[in-house]
Amino acid sequence: MKRAVVFAHYDKNNKIEDYVTYYLKSLKDAECDVVFVSCCELQNSEIEKVKNYVIHSICEKHDEYDFGSYKRGFLYLKNSLNDYDELIFANDSCYGPIYPISEVFENMEKAECDFWGITKNNFGYKKSIGHFFIKRPHVQSYFIAFNKNIFMSEDFFNFMTSIVHQDRKKLIVSKYEIGLTELLLEKGYRYKVLVNAFENVNNITILKWRQIIENYKMPFIKKSLFDLRNTDVATIENYENYLKNYPKNLIKLSRQINHKIPAKTKIAIFDFISGFPFAIRKIFSILIDKIFIFIKD
């Protein structure tokens, strides 16, 4: 297959970190044509870091988050899209790939579907944007691929060009990430995911990251885990054991991990909590955040 990738980037310091360069090189090695779209006004010295791995770079602040970057890359490719068999949207929210991305492509080429992703989330915000999750299955947009019958369609074009700034992240997730899967299903398209597991867990990339790497060959791990933004629902203790083939120097921790209790105990606690429904798990996370702080990374 001939593949085009629109890669969405953002960095608060207007930098392209080494893990992003590694990711882009991996896509280039898998013979993908990558359009790099940054929601930052990057200096030329930063853009130079990726020039050997991309066919084009777009760097402009737009405040439309990843889907705004996907829109810009899609519109850049519009006149040449017929040359491709598959269009992929990917972003910089993950470290990886942990193993060659070409192995993922080989696996998913066998899947009988019109679009596919790495993981799905069976839950999402209400369309009215309430505080609780409901059943709204969708392919997670950090890596999602479309066949030609989708990306050349009028419905897809209309969806992409409808993307505008939203005031709240929940609206972005509801309207664009979840909305895209729902639109395509409504039009009769079929999807598959590489990691099809833990149907009752609302975000397996955070809550079940160990299990999906170890047992389902998940090729990525979420960067937010290492930014230590999920310490009330997950731990990254002993992460090195799961990333043996990934350069450890690319991973940056926002601070040192707290080791106030044994790693095995901490892992067991979070694995136990992750099996509960969202409402019950939320109670546990509040207790950990406010009272049992010593459990957190």
Distance between the termini: 42 Å
What letter string, H or E per element, gives the SSE order?
A: EHEHEHEEHEEEEHHHEHHEHHH
Number of strands: 11
Main beta-sheet strand count, sense and barrel state: 7 strands, mixed
Mean pLDDT: 94
Query: How are strands sequenced across the largest beta sheet?
Result: 3-2-1-4-9-6-10
What oligomeric state best describes the polypeptide chains here? single chain
Strand content: 15-25%
Could you say which overall geometry the principal axes of the C-alpha atoms support?
A: globular
Task: Please provide a written account of the structure.
The chain has 12 helices and 11 strands. The chain is of the alpha/beta class and 297 residues long. The strands form 3 sheets. Strands 3-2-1-4-9-6-10 form a 7-stranded mixed β-sheet, sandwiched between helices. Strands 5-11 form a two-stranded antiparallel sheet. The chain starts with a strand and ends in a 7-residue tail after the last helix. 39% of the residues are buried. The mean pLDDT is 94.
